Amino acid sequence: MTRQARCPFDPPPAGIAAQQAAPLLRVELADGSTPWLATRYAEQRALLSDPRMSADITRPGYPIPGGGEGAGSAFSFILMDDPEHARLRRMVTAPFMVKRVEAMRPAVQEIVDGLLDDMLVTDAPVDLVEAFALPMPSLVICRLLGVPYSDHDLFQSNSKILINRETSANEKRQAVGALVDYLHGLLRLKAEEPGEDVFSDLARRVEANELSSDDAAMMGVLLLVAGHETTANMIALGTLALLEHPHQLQRLRENNDPALVTSAVEELLRYLTIVHDGRKRVALEDIEVAGHLIRAGEGVIMATDLGNRDPQVFPEPNTLDLRRDARHHIAFGFGVHQCLGQPLARMELQVAYTTLFRRIPELKLAVPLDEVPFKHDGSVYGVYELPVTW
Ligand code: HEM
Fold first, then answer.
1. For ligand 1, atom 20, which residue shows the shortest CA distance?
2. 184 pLDDT band (50/70/90 cuts)?
3. Is beta strand 292-294 parallel, antiparallel or unpaired with respect to 287-289?
4. Distance between CA atoms of 214 and 123, rounded to whole angstroms?
5. Is residue 8 part of a domain?
């Protein structure tokens, strides 16, 4: 569905019309299949937390928006069901828990300040994506996982291929292959010289036969890709949304209240809901929802960008209101696959937005909004470049 050029932050008009028409309707994908589209918050949450819905991409009926095969089996537990999903997820839960993440806040602040120091000594305009939004979460996830940042070209370029809707299944397979090969090598190094990081722990588990080396490498790909790309897009798109809503931005600038910073980040996550293409599932049994019967083997796409704009749940949903209590948004998904990295993403965004606007109060867009290249072709929404000046 195409967005309106003059409303780059809003879901496509066809999606909004679908939401108004029905909570559940059939859509046609490129391969001619006709899965269900769930358009409203209540049904999306119900289906995402229903154990009769499977996230296993290898099951017949799993909806793949571009049609054809998914390159997805390499994405580890995000595309698996319990109990295997839970077994693998448990192995990497601890470093992403709130307390551990909060302990990283000073290190993240240092990374943010370092990048802004560098940016401020260059001549404006600069591309905020390249100077700040992409390196910041990449540096953080590299430190947490134990990946040398000097390898960032390899993982950033292959991640880009993976989240681009236009790339063929073959190109995606090659990108996954390159990442898996890289992770195999890195895990071997970690086995020889372990450090205090997530990948050293995974290498230890492989040695202890708790985990196959293939599963460890695939988990590594998931953590590395999910851990930088989404947050990077949220930093750049969120900055742009704030610049385009000066009254809201003023509120954030004038107020040092941590509660406002927290609610601002939740509202930006809701308003922008950058993970597109919906959460995809296939029914394991017949399920009745909102008067419709989803039959076993039928696919369902939960359009969470629409769910987060559902007027039944978020009054005046198309208004960005940083004081709104948006904590119950579903930008991180819902149910057992709910984002593992959400405490980290939240903390990174809180530090990124507040420091950026505190240190560069005159920050502004260096080109008209309609010259900003939006990622209309990506399964994660954002901007390719954000030219800014001050
Ligand atoms: C603003 C940033 C982020 C957004 C919007 C986001 C969004 C999401 C969403 C929507 C899901 C659910 C997938 C589904 O239900 O099929 C998810 C899952 C996941 N995310 Fe994030 N994410 C973000 C940051 C991160 C970070 C920093 C990490 C760190 C590694 C991460 C790791 C994961 C993992 C491992 C899963 C799979 C969880 C599972 O299947 O049990 N994410 N994310």
1. 339
2. very high
3. antiparallel
4. 46
5. no
Task: For CA atoms 372, 174, 280, 78, give the dihedral sign.
Answer: negative
For residue 302 and ligand 1, the question of a CB distance below 6 A is answered with no
The reply to whether ligand 1 has any atom less than 6 angstroms from the CB of 136 is no
- Residue 10 domain-assigned (yes or no): no
Q: Taking the model in full, what pTM does it have?
A: 0.96
Query: Which CATH number fits the domain that encloses residue 277?
Result: 1.10.630.10
The reply to whether ligand 1 has any atom less than 6 angstroms from the CB of 340 is: yes
Helix axes 198-207, 84-91, angle to 10 degrees: 120
Residue 78 in contact with ligand 1 by CB distance below 6 A = yes
- Ligand 1, atom nearest to 334 Cα: 15
Residue 64 φ/ψ region, left for φ over 0, alpha for ψ in the -120 to 50 degree band, beta for the rest: beta
pLDDT tens digits, one per residue of 196-238: 999 999 999 999 999 999 999 999 999 999 999 899 999 999 9
Residue nearest to atom 1 of ligand 1 (CA): 231
Sign of the CA dihedral with 61 first, then 62, 66, and 72 last: negative
> Residue 69: which domain range?
15-389
The secondary structure of 199-213 as a DSSP string is HHHHHHHHHTTSS-H
CB atoms within 10 A of CB 256: 10
Domain count, the chain: 1
| CB of 110 closer than 8 Å to CB of 143 | no
Gap between the Cα atoms of 47 and 61, Å rounded: 16
State the Cα–Cα distance between residues 291 and 25, nearest whole angstrom: 11
Give, for ligand 1, the residue of 159, 339, 348, 349 to mutate: max count of ligand atoms closer than 8 Å to Cβ: 339
Ligand 1 centroid to Cα of residue 332, in Å, is: 6
DSSP output for 102-135: HHTHHHHHHHHHHHHHHHHTSPSPEEHIIIIITH
Place of tokens 């990295």: 341
Length of the chain in terms of residues written: 390
Between the CA of 222 and the centroid of ligand 1 the distance, in Å, is: 9
Residue 107 resides in a domain? yes
Tens digits of residue pLDDT in 9-62: 999 999 999 999 999 999 999 889 999 999 999 999 999 999 999 999 989 999
